Design the sequence.
């Protein structure tokens, strides 16, 4: 979570207009059924900072390895988040079969995480609680949705980060456990029951009834949902992709870490290249009647070409994204070098060059193609757009970030350059008008050199 409003100002200055704000169940519901007002106010503060900078917020219910309180001897608890300690049911973990421990380890899943998730998906009850842990989670999510129901700076809510499987039959897992869990959250916060009879409040989690309507009725915000976390290793989802909710404002949110996290089994990598992740994501999303937004991608600092190739595929697939991560302490995956407060802490010029890019803000017509090439080895950056008109009279707007010089612009076809506006922060907005017609094409080409501060 950003430490100060200055973080959001810096994010805006680089041209980003969406942040994925990770929040933790453990801080939201430190005791069963008790939601932290202080933590909710903290989330509100960050959303307010973002609104002041005209930045959208995607609120992400984040977890890694289920809970920071898991103790499996690997010290994962030193950096993970997620479920509060009371939602980690040790009885389930202690009874997890040895052969399953071994098999899950072979495909890169910590078995204690899998065991904890098994209790979660089965909605097992913590000692002394009148409800199971999945129902606790759903109500915790609902408390945040209710808080931001009328907030127009919040783009939507991501239901869970990288949900792990809980059984070896991974082919059946999503149908049997993951998507029914997602459906219950959507039912709770929207009131859409998917044609099912509502479950009684005293037995709210059921396979043949809808989760009770909690009276929030938020049908404006987007719901972002991730596939089973195994997709990170395969670049495709092990699932039967089909509609799972009657709510229409849904966005499929895979993560793309091609060649960083994808499996390498005895030298065999079961992926065909950088295009595969988004090729498969759009096929899966279309089958689920969903759009796509990649909510994590990135690479280690010694493999920046990987995140560059992933960005290229996002352009080719006309797919938006959020990068992992803004700042971190010495990990090297963020946009900053070093750790905050230490000597030498600074923006990573190579990351900025790759991610802070010229991009369309609004398009009059149907965007057909987009390609951005960052400035490298003395070469100017370039952005090329092609658009088909659809009788829209509002202008096309293109943003050029402040770390690039005044752009050179060419417009061809059924459109013309209107003006280039310099903002106080040094960025430029290019305004292009197009013919009020249908089916004509126009093209925009922008190139710009790089200012010197990225070379420092």
Sequence:
């Amino acid at each position: 979570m950003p430490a100060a409003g200055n973080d959001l100002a810096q994010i805006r200055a680089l041209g980003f207009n969406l942040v994925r704000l990770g929040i933790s169940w453990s801080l939201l519901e430190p005791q069963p059924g008790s939601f932290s007002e202080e933590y909710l106010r903290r989330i509100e503060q960050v959303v307010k900072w973002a609104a002041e900078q005209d930045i959208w917020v995607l609120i992400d219910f984040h977890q890694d390895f289920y809970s920071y309180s898991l103790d499996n001897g690997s010290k994962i608890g030193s950096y993970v988040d997620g479920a509060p300690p009371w939602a980690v049911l040790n009885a389930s973990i202690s009874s997890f079969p040895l052969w399953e421990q071994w098999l899950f380890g072979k495909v890169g899943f910590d078995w204690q995480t899998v065991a904890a998730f098994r209790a979660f998906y089965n909605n097992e009850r913590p000692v002394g609680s009148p409800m199971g842990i999945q129902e606790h989670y759903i109500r915790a999510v609902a408390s945040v949705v209710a808080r931001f129901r009328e907030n127009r700076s919040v783009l939507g809510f991501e239901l869970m980060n990288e949900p792990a499987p809980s059984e070896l039959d991974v082919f059946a897992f999503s149908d049997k456990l993951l998507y029914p869990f997602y459906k219950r959250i959507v039912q709770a916060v929207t009131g859409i029951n998917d044609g099912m009879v509502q479950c009684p409040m005293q037995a709210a989690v059921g396979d043949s009834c809808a989760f009770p309507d909690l009276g929030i009725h938020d049908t404006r915000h987007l719901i972002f949902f991730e596939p089973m976390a195994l997709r990170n290793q395969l670049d495709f989802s092990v699932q039967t992709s089909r509609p799972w909710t009657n709510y229409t404002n849904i966005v499929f949110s895979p993560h793309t870490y091609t060649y960083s996290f994808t499996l390498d089994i005895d030298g065999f990598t079961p992926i065909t290249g950088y295009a595969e992740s988004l090729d498969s994501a759009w096929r899966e999303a279309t089958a689920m009647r969903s759009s796509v937004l990649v909510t994590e991608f990135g690479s280690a600092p010694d493999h920046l070409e990987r995140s560059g190739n992933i960005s290229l595929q996002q352009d080719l697939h006309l797919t938006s994204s959020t990068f992992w991560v803004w700042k971190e302490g010495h990990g090297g995956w963020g946009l900053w070098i070093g750790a905050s407060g230490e000597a030498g802490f600074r923006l990573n010029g190579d990351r900025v060059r790759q991610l802070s890019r010229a991009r369309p803000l609004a398009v009059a017509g149907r965007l057909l193609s987009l390609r951005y090439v960052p400035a490298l080895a003395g070469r100017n950056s370039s952005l090329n757009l092609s658009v088909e008109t659809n009788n829209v009279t509002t202008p096309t707007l293109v943003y050029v970030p402040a770390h690039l010089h005044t752009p050179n612009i060419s417009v061809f076809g059924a459109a013309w350059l209107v003006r280039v506006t310099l903002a106080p922060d040094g960025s430029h907005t290019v305004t292009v008008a197009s013919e009020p017609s249908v089916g004509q094409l126009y093209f925009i080409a922008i190139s710009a050199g790089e200012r010197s501060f990225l070379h420092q």
The longest strand covers residues 438-448. The mean pLDDT is 93.
